[in-house]
Amino acid sequence: MPSRDATDPVLTPEDQRLVAALQYDGRLTAEAAGEALGISPRRVLRRWKALLGDGTVRVVLPVAPDPSAAPALGAQFLRIRVLRGKLDTITAALAARDDIPFIDVTTSGDEILAVAWTRPGAPDPLVFRQLPSTQAVTSVDAATVLHVFRLASQWRHDVLTVAERGAVTPPSSPARGELDATDRAILAALADDARLPAAAVSSRTGCPQSTVRRRLASLTAEGRLATQVVVDPRRLGLTVDANVLLRVPPDFLTAAGRALAEHSAVHGAFATSGPSNLHAAVWLRDLAALYAFLAEDLTGLGVTHVETAIVSRAVKRPGGRSGSGGAPLR
């Protein structure tokens, strides 16, 4: 997540709509956005240049483990409690690891929530050896992700009309088959900036511009160029960032997960192992909206237990620039 001050103002309604349009198509042109949203293309280009130029918004490819390194990699949610005064030391060490894409600190002041890439069923060294042997860590709980209902890259800021959403969503077409070396090279070139012009992608990959443009069009239509807009939710007026851990009976699990995935506040929904078998990550306007989510929106989903952890600080998120430095875990 870009490093922004908590006092940065909420973006204007127009800017929020422009950010939302990029969520539907990270390579959307100013002309297409202007036509869909009723804003002049020149103004769209000017506002995007400002938002992207100062780091308020980044358009990247979603983070994922390297399949060539470990084809069976999955994910674990970690809840790590540490001694007060040692929080920054542990978060810095975790942020330096490539296998930890998410790190949050909760309002309790001594708890870290993290996501780790891991091999399902294997005794992960981080969980079984490194963290428990670190004197600053008092406890570690790990839950394996069993099923994904919604990823952060699939979340959309709910500020566009149905017609506008349709107008900025790329048309779809059947997939051509497996990605080849050219496709993979193009996607790699776009990893940190998915809006790179075709000329820049051509320069990075050595492919002709005509090939790059053709492949980009195909990858987008096939849903393989799924971009993610990285923006501090506070700039969108969403001041509450929380993780909601739920317990539901097995016969409610799929329906509850799907319902959460459709909720406009939920940017992550997962079935997991452990006492809480359903995990929802939410961005909401304020604490009153969080209360309404818990008291009203969860009704009818079969929930038997709820635990809410409010995030006070997002240390590392995909697309952010944190993660360098830090002492190793011992």
UniProtKB/TrEMBL annotation:
Annotated Pfam families: AsnC_trans_reg (PF01037), HTH_AsnC-type (PF13404)
Keywords annotated in UniProt: DNA-binding, Transcription, Transcription regulation
InterPro entries for the chain: AsnC-type_HTH_dom, Dimeric_a/b-barrel, Tscrpt_reg_AsnC-like, Tscrpt_reg_AsnC/Lrp_C, WH-like_DNA-bd_sf, WH_DNA-bd_sf
SMART domains cross-referenced by the UniProt entry: HTH_ASNC
SUPFAM superfamilies hit by this protein: Dimeric alpha+beta barrel, Winged helix' DNA-binding domain
HTH asnC-type domain ranges (all copies): 179-239
Name of the protein described by the UniProt record: Lrp/AsnC family transcriptional regulator
Lineage of origin: Bacteria, Bacillati, Actinomycetota, Actinomycetes, Kitasatosporales
